[in-house]
Amino acid sequence: MSAALCAAFDLGSNSVKVLIGRPTGGPVDIVEQRVAVTRLSQGVDASGRLHPDAVARTLEALRAMVARCSELGVDRLTAVGTAVLRDAQDAPDFLDACRDLLGLEVEVVDGATEAEIVRLAARYEVEDVDDDAMLVDIGGGSTEVVWNGGAESTELGVVRLTERHVQADPPGAETLDTLRRVVARRLDALPVPPDVSAVVGSSASCSLLARISLKLAVHDPQRIHGHHLSLREIGRIAGILAGQTEAERAAWPGIDARRADVLLAGAAVLEGAARRAGVEGVIVSDRGTRFGVFHRAFTASR
Questions:
Q1: Is pTM, for the whole model, over 0.90?
Q2: With the C-alpha atoms ordered 37, 38, 44, 46, is the resulting torsion angle positive or negative?
C-alpha cells in the first residue's frame, strides 16, 4: 500500500509554495507543486507591518492551494512561515486568518530551525553532498547559510536587499557593486571553515540563474536540479541584469517576470556565497525549503 499523501506549505517573503507528495524515506515522491509570487513582505522592512494588499494576495493563493490539497485527498498538512512572519508586528493577525479562514495552522520558525530545514532538503534531495559542503537558501526576507558545524539566518533576502539598495532602473554597475559589498561584509562575518568542498544553492533565484545560463525558455527541473553554475557565469549574468531595466529583464527567455526586480540581488548573494566559500561555482538545487519542511514533518516520522 502506498504512503499517505502529504502536503508541505512554505510561506516565504516573496512567494508561497506547496509540495504535495508521498514520503519514501528518501527523495519525495512528488505528486504536484504550486508556487504563487505574492510578495507578503512588501514594505515590511520599512514599516514593520504587513501590507493589506500583500495579505489579500497571499490568502487568496493559499486558499487555492488548500482547495487543491482537498481535491487530491491529502491526508496530512504542515505549514511553515519564515522571515517575513518573524519580522512583521501584525503577523499574529495573519496567522489567525490562515487558521480561521483556511483551516491552515502555520508554524513560524526561527532562523536556527529554518537552517535545519535547509539542511534536511539537501540531505534528502541532493545527490553526493558531503558534510563539508556549504548550503545557501536565498529567500525574500532572509538567506540561510549552513556549514559543517554551524548555521546562521542572515538578513540577505532578495526583497529586503532590493528595497534597501536598488533604487534606479536600470540599477547600473554602481548598484551591483553596492550589493556585492553588502553581501560580502555580511558573509565575511560568518565563521565558515576554510575547507568547504562545495556550495549548494537553493531558491527561485538559483533556479532562475541556472535557467538563464542553460538558455531554457521554460522551467525544466531535470536539467536545473544538480546543475553546476560557475562563479564566472553568475558574475556575467549579474552584470547584464544590472545594465537592463526591469521591463527588459522581465522579457528575457527563462526569467519569471514576477521575480525580475529581485533577481539581481539573488545573483549578488549567490556570487558572494561562492566567493566566501572559496569555490569556483555552485550546485543548484531546485528542491529548497518546502522539501525540507516536508521531510521535517513526514520523513522523520516514518
A1: yes
A2: positive
Which helix (H) or strand (E) segment holds residue 81: the answer is: strand 76-81
Question: What is the helix, strand, coil percentage profile of the chain, to 5?
Answer: 45, 20, 35
Query: Which of 3.30.420.150, 3.40.630.10, 3.30.70.20, 3.10.450.50 would CATH assign to domain 127-286?
Result: 3.30.420.150
The grid cell for 124 is 534528502
pLDDT of residue 117: 95
The correct CATH number of 6-111 out of 3.30.450.20, 3.40.50.720, 3.20.20.140, 3.30.420.40 is 3.30.420.40
Every domain of the chain with CATH number 3.30.420.40 lies at: 6-111
**How many whole angstroms from its chain centre is CA 232?**
22
Sheet holding 281-285, edge to edge: 150-154, 143-147, 134-138, 199-202, 281-285, 228-230
In the chain, CATH 3.30.420.150 sits at: 127-286
Concatenated DSSP letters for 208-272? Answer: HHHHHHTT-SS--HHHHTT-EEEHHHHHHHHHHHHTS-HHHHHTSTT--GGGTTTHHHHHHHHHH
Residue 104 and residue 98 in contact, taking contact as beta carbons nearer than 8 Å: yes
Give residue 133's Cα distance to chain centre: 18
Share the mean pLDDT of the chain.
95
Give the model's pLDDT for residue 2: 66
Identity at 144, one-letter amino acid code: E
Q: Which of 177, 187, 175 is nearest to 143 (CA)?
A: 187
